Amino acid sequence: MTHHDDELREAIVRHEWNQFQNTNNEGGRAACQGNWPVFHQMRLAQFLTWPHDLLVSYAADLDAADEIGRNLITEKYGRMMASTAPDEFAKNIEPYIPELSADRIARQEQVITQQVAWAADFRERYPRLGQAMRVLTTSEDTSQATSFETYLRGELGTYSDATFNLYEAMISERASATPPRNITEETLLHTVRLGGFDSLDEAEALQAAQS
User: What three-state secondary structure class fits 28?
Assistant: First the structure.
């Protein structure tokens, strides 16, 4: 992990945060919009699992979005509403966001299937930490709760083709590694480390003790 990548990750999280501050939710600002420490921890944990070329490509997506007045964070939350608020999505969001090709959607769904399987596997092994996560599948979405699957679908939908190609390659590489590298587990390990724990087992034990 190079110093340059560390700086790049921090810059990406800050860039996302700035776009997030300009995201209008229904009913005003979301509580998490005012919580930089939590946002920083969650997003940095994800980007710590990404290789250099993917970070560079996504940073370029954010810059390109700024130039044309697109907000990728607003769009990510908008895309999630395809599941959580379908009428609102069809009327007020879908006409205004880039349309994804059938091929891109199919490839995204393969990535999502792999990541949902990894997340389910993680939850079985770390049930307490798993409970603190989002619900898992789109079928569990409500107007108040957005699942891991729906969130991921929203996020992947905002990536440029170049960024998605690199992301897809990363997931496929980790799935075929021996043993496979579960990206949910790696992300959660970074999350608990950023929160001051040494390991997932330590964080899991504390969750169990508190409940």
Answer: coil
Candidates 109, 132, 108; CA nearest to 122 is: 132
3-state SS track over 65-133: HHHHCCCHHHHHHHHHHHHHCHHHHHHHHHHHCCCCCHHHHHHHHHHHHHHHHHHHHHHHHCHHHHHCC
Q: Is the Cβ–Cβ distance between 155 and 76 less than 8 Å? A: yes
CA distances, 140 to each of 101, 111, 168, 180 (Å): 26, 19, 25, 27
Task: In whole angstroms, give the CA distance from residue 40 to residue 135.
Answer: 21
How far is residue 149's CA from residue 115's CA, in Å, rounded to a whole number? 8
Instruction: Mark residue 36 as left, alpha or beta (left: phi above 0; alpha: psi -120 to 50; beta: remaining).
Output: alpha
Which pLDDT tens digit goes with each residue over 150-179? 999 999 999 999 999 999 999 999 999 999
Structure tokens of 7? 């700086």
**pLDDT of res. 134:** 84
Q: With a threshold of 0.70, does the pTM exceed it?
A: yes
Q: Residue 26: CB partners within 8 Å, gap ≥ 6?
A: 88
Among candidate residues 58, 64, 61, the one with its CA nearest the CA of residue 9 = 58
